[in-house]
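#random but structural
TW: two for the price of one
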Amino acid sequence: NDINKEENSKTLTTNVSWLKTTDGISIAFPENLNFNNIKGTVFLYRPSNKALDFEIPISLSNHNLLIPDKRLLDGRWNIKIDWKYNNNNYLFKTDINY
C-alpha cells in the first residue's frame, strides 16, 4: 500500500517539500492542488527516543503546514506524510536533521 502511495507521488507535477525555519519545519504541499481537498497525517519519528514521536493531522489554511519549533528537539527526525487529495493517496518520507 505504501509503495502505491509513493508511486502516486511520483506522478505529481510538484511533490511535497520541507524547509527549516526559525518557527519550526514548514511543509509545502503542491501549489497546483486545492489545499482545501488535502487531508492526512504527518508522523514525526525520533529514532533515538520513541517517547518524542508524535503525529499532526493535516489541516491547511494555505499550501503550508508548520510543525512548531517547540515540538522539535535538535537532531535526527524521520518524517512520513501520508496524505490524500480527492481520491488519490500519496506518501512522502524523508529524514532530516533539525
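TW: number two ↓
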Amino acid sequence: SEIDKEEAEKLDKVLQPLHYSMFVESNPSPVKYAASILGLCSPEVRLPLVETTKETQKIVLSALKNAKLL
C-alpha cells in the first residue's frame, strides 16, 4: 500500500548511510567495527583482514548515530 511504500522510503533514507559505511573499505572490517560498537563482538580481526582506518571508523560511527542505533 501507499503507507507501506512511504514507510519503506523513510527507512531506506535512514539506512542508506549505514549501508554505504559498511562498504567504505573492501573487507568486512567495517561491519566488525560496527558490531563491536554495538557490543556484539570485539573489534579485532585476523589476517588476511585488516583493522579499519580512523576515517572509516568515523564514517561508521556517524552512520550508526544517524540510524539511531547509538
